[in-house]
Amino acid sequence: MGRAGALRWAALATALALAGSGCSGSDGAAPSAPAAAPPVATSPANVGLPQLPGQAFYVSDRTNAARQLAALRGQGRTADADSLLRIAAQPSAQWLGEQDAREIAEQVSRRATEADRTAVFVAYNIPHRDCGLYSAGGAADAAAYRAWITGVAEALADRRAWVVLEPDAVPHTLDGCGVKGDQAAERYGLLAFAVQELKKRPNVRVYLDAGNPGWAQDPAELAGALRKSGIAAADGFAVNVANFYETGRNAAYGGGLSAALGGKHFVIDTSRNGNGPLGGDSWCNPPGRALGERPTADTGRPGVDAYLWVKNPGESDGECGRGEPRAGEFWLPYALGLARAAR
Asked: Which principal EC class is assigned to this enzyme (predicted)?
């Protein structure tokens, strides 16, 4: 980290301390993502996190990274806490799954509004989710999903929010997942319904997931699947969710897909793409990765609405056979590695 970066993080650490004291997938395989949202109940161990000047998106002190930061400070592990601050102090998405989604959406969006920021959510509850892999689950059937997404939309009310809709759901209808025929048609209908319900809320933006540059898809076929899924009524699409591809490559990939969709805008998940992908089939907790560009709605790239941390850095992709935690659980050594490798 350069001198300017070091000074910036030192200033942020000071602000954090004051707040806390009360003085102020891979090539051909889908990436796994957290299966459940972290709890949002207030904890005495929470450390107040300041909202960064100029930042449009909400920084929550209820994330797994923020909770771990509080624990590290309580243990006197200052160096580790300073490293983890590079994650905890940035806005990251709130994942909504089977449990308490409506309540979490209402609470987080309300706190974001009180802070004059925009909350970012991931709706992740489509039936047959993740092809039965590390983040398997989802709503029991179509009726349950429609009720679930309607509840989420109602919870957001008239508050500002961005929603990344169902990572992997569209691309999995075009690969070897098995979501084909009637199941694929049902999924497209559910996604279109979700877009429709969310867009009833006046200040909600919706971005349908559209895979990543390393996930072999025919662009015309993917564009067709996105049209069936309601992209026309959405604000755009999301790329690189929970993956590692460089921002420039994602911008090119998204730009091509945008052209096939009549100029639809898109967002890029930059949470862990600072060093790019490891290569091969290494999408599950690959070592040596780094945080990417910080979340911002000022990307300087035409058609790219934002860089977002959709995947929460430090949360496991799944039990990949090397002793990792299950999908969505916070993994401190991995989080510290991402933070320390960041430029």
From this structure: hydrolase
Q: Where do the structural domains in the chain lie, given as residue ranges? A: 60-341
27-58 burial string, b = 16+ CB within 10 Å, else e? eebbbbbbbbbbebeeeeebbbbbbbeebbbb
- Residue where the block lists tokens 């909770």: 67
Is 200 labeled as ligand-binding? Answer: no
The annotation status of 106 as a binding-site residue, yes or no, is: no
* Active-site annotation holder among 82, 130, 209, 305: 130
CATH number, span 60-341: 3.20.20.40
| pLDDT tens string 9-33 | 333 443 343 333 333 343 434 444 4
DSSP helix/strand/coil, 29: strand
Q: Is the pTM of this model over 0.85?
A: yes
Active-site residue, 168 included: yes
311 annotated to a ligand binding site = yes
Among 61, 80, 82, 168, the one annotated catalytic: 168
